[in-house]
Write a structure and sequence with these properties.
Radius of gyration: 27 Å
Shape: rod-shaped
Largest sheet: none
Number of strands: 0
Distance between the termini: 91 Å
Strand content: under 5%
Helix content: over 70%
Order of helices and strands: H
């Protein structure tokens, strides 16, 4: 007859823990994705500012 079945409460607890972990994993992935987007945006802004600063220094307005 196979191995004995786990009690229902234990199964429910295991499913609950697994679902909570999955949600946490998804939230973590979303946070990491947003952080990566923020890093890219910051680099673009820094490059934009640097390019405009160079353009001002090289312009005829001096």
């Amino acid at each position: 007859m196979g191995r004995p079945r786990k009690p229902r409460e234990e199964i429910v607890k295991t499913i609950s823990i697994n679902l909570k972990q999955k949600v946490l994993d998804e939230i973590t992935a979303d946070i990491l994705e947003q952080e990566n987007k923020n890093v890219i945006a910051k680099r673009r802004i820094e490059q934009f500012v640097l390019n405009n600063y160079r353009n001002l220094n090289n312009s005829d307005f001096q």
